Amino acid sequence: MPTDTNEAPWEVVEQLVASRDAAGLSDYLDDLGPSETARAISRLDETCRNDLLILLDPRDAAEVIEDVSDAQAVELIEDLPADRAASIVDQMPSDEQADLLGDLDEEDAEEILREMTPDEARTVRVLMTYEPDSAGGIMVTEYLRYGQNATVEDVTRDLAQHREQYARYDIQYIYVIDDASRLVGVLPLRELLFAPHAAPLRELMITDPLSVPATASLEDLENFFDQYDLFGVSVVDAGRQLVGVVLRSDVEEAAADRTTRQVLGLSGIVGGEELRSMPVMVRSGRRLSWLSINVVLNLVAAGVIAAYQDTLEAAIALAVFLPMISDMSGCSGNQAVAVSMRELTLGLIRPNELLRVMLKEASVGLINGIALGLLLGGLAMLWKSNPWLGVVVGGALAVNTVVAVTMGGLLPLLLKRLRLDPALVSGPILTTITDMCGFFIVLSMATTMIEKL
Fold first, then answer.
1. Per-chain mean pLDDT for the chain
2. Helices marked H in 34-140 — which ranges?
3. What's the CATH fold of domain 9-129?
């Protein structure tokens, strides 16, 4: 079907879906590229999205699902009939199958699993038992493995017989196992091409290959690929049986997703990724659930000001500096939060290392607090020609900076120990603490010096 090149991509997609032109739709989406495909899909209404996925061949529909974000993929799949969703999920790589079904409601995921081919469903169920950011949760099960007694001829024959299936795999190596499925070697495909046909793999393979346990964390995998310039690494269980392969590209993608989650959490976006294609009440509810907590937290800080209302009325100049002290201390604390979050991510600190973190951050907070206090206190003194105002303002900022930096370093560790998401709650809790402490320190100091202010 001819299309007007001046039309927006989603308008073209709507026309192709309406005309039931499956071939034209597939070709057009191939030409769009992943980001434009995701943008076009986000502008379609629910009916058109469903019709699009039903109209396309399952493999083409799977490519569309892979092009969009995780949140969009969940939206697309959960609205489809279970049998159609299963036929699409069947065509996806194993790690993406597990991620997608893991994000669905348990009932919806189970319904789709029942409709999938038994082998695919069995593999996905196993992958879903691993932590998402572990080697087991990131690995793929689409790889080539052969027994150590297999010959080069056996392998090449198998490759020829299953070339359509293997064409979808990211293949650089052949993995060699013993009779108990334990990993014993790897063989680069290039070496296989030039080896004698009768040669057994055990004579050609690289013995004692590198591997990672299925329980390895994302940080462990990042460190591994920083150390070794490899395309992927084999994953083994406690008995050293080969269970999958982790690709470098998938580790990089998982690290980027983790960063996105942390940024969203620190910004107060709860419940996972938010897209503007989601129902407005869902988006509103997610935001309000967090904003309403902030209202309560801020009331606590406001209560401190109310308790010192007489002092504030007597020294009205303090009102100018209260938000400055709160904001500057909060910024210092958030720097400490960021460092703790990063070190937790890299595995450089553990949640029980509270004393070490407290001492390290308190020393930085003391130096920065004195520097900032002298700066702001000096400005306050010059503005009102009152050295005591400078002492109150500068001293309060110095003390509150030490408190904010120390708490900012400790909060992520404390929340991690409580099995809460540090990124999600560190910021608002720290803001309340710095506001409350800052207001209390300023106003209590001012109360003791009220006659000199």
1. 86
2. 34-42, 46-55, 58-67, 70-78, 82-89, 94-103, 106-115, 118-127, 135-138
3. MgtE N-terminal fold (1.25.60)
